[in-house]
Amino acid sequence: YDGTAFTPRGLEDVSGYPNLIAELLRRGWSEGDLAKLTWQNSVRVLRDAEAVARDEQSGRGPSHATITELDGPLG
């Protein structure tokens, strides 16, 4: 919701999600499709992020450069 100017009535925050899920079920969404919409997508995103982190870590190590070394002295 960060940066969203408008939200549907009843979905101003996550407390409305149970009503959204109930409505999607009423409209014929399967339990499997709802799982993909909700937690399975989150799990996929986290797995993908972990894979990227592993790839990054297998390359060069962390930088030990200081701000002064990178940007020069203040002033």
Descriptive overview:
By secondary structure, this protein is mainly alpha-helical. The protein has 3 helices and no strands. It has a domain at 30-57. Helix content is 57%, strand content 0%. The longest helix has 28 residues, at 31-58. The model has no long low-confidence stretch (mean pLDDT 89).
How far apart are the first and last residues' alpha carbons, in Å? Answer: 39 Å
Write down how many β-strands occur, each being a DSSP E stretch of 2 or more residues.
Answer: 0
Helix content: 55-70%
Largest sheet: none
Return residue spans where pLDDT drops below 50 for at least 5 consecutive residues: none
- Helix- and strand-based class? mainly alpha
The ordered H/E elements are HHH
* Total count of helical runs of at least 4 residues: 3
Mean pLDDT: 89
> Which strand-content bin applies to the residues?
under 5%
From the spread of the alpha carbons, the general shape counts as elongated
Radius of gyration: 21 Å
Query: What is the quaternary state of this protein?
Result: single chain
Q: Can you tag this structure with a few keywords?
A:
75 residues; mainly alpha; 3 helices
How do the helices and strands line up, and which of them pair or pack?
Layout: H1 17-26, H2 31-58, H3 67-71
Provide a brief overview of the structure.
The chain is mainly α and 75 residues long. The protein is 57% helix and 0% strand. The protein has a domain at 30-57.
